[in-house]
User: What shape does this take?
Amino acid sequence: MLDAQQPGEPRIYLAHIDENRRVAFSLDDPDFADNTAVLLGPAGRDGDALEYASPTVAQLRELALLSAPGARTSVSYWDVYQQPQSFVETIFPQFAQDGAAGAREFHTGLRATHEGSPGHITTLGHSYASVLTGHSAGGGARLDTDDVVFIGSWGTGTNNASELSLGGVAPENTADHVFATMSSGDHVRLMPDTHGPLPTDPEYGARTFESMSLIPDRWNGYDHRSDFYLASTNPAAQNIGLVITGRGDLVS
Assistant: This one.
């Protein structure tokens, strides 16, 4: 179940839940937000999505509030697709390919129901969700988002940031709206390149920014955790907050 709302906290808006416990929900109302971050669900979350989603969307919203305290930011979570449930399954793109249409539809709905002037939308793909993000915005498809952030990603299903298509962004400017970060100790660097190059590879063309390592000079699973990338002590977190609040030009 979603955690009960505490006094003074933003409301939770449930958009979808099904018999497989796949969910889509928003922390604060995206229809009236200045900024909306969309966190796509990574692998292995069937049945326990909220254990990952609830604290992670809260972390993202806190980063946005630190970056732009005067702006209203909503954070949405979407995992309404069959996710890979094992290490071996994450090697294959089929899960992301099958889920891409639903992810695009969710983004289109966010844009269509927004009240007033258009809000800023950022899509975040951590781990296998970066593959889902890449397939949602690549292969000739278009994802209705303003910025994309790949976090701890070993590939996106595309060979270059310019292959992505983002709503409201001219094709020649796409790479300026694609961001990526990877810790030096993140063990997914050891994954096979079945999803194409790392988005942090200079040849991919994304705008990259630094992430610290919890265990320097050693491959480890801690560096791959979303709560590590989003921790206030990690320099990656500040940059993620800037992108979410539409200030990606300040990322360094």
Residues 12-250 form a domain with the Rossmann fold fold (CATH 3.40.50.1820). The chain is about 25% helix and 15% strand. Residues 123 and 148 are 5 Å apart (CA to CA).
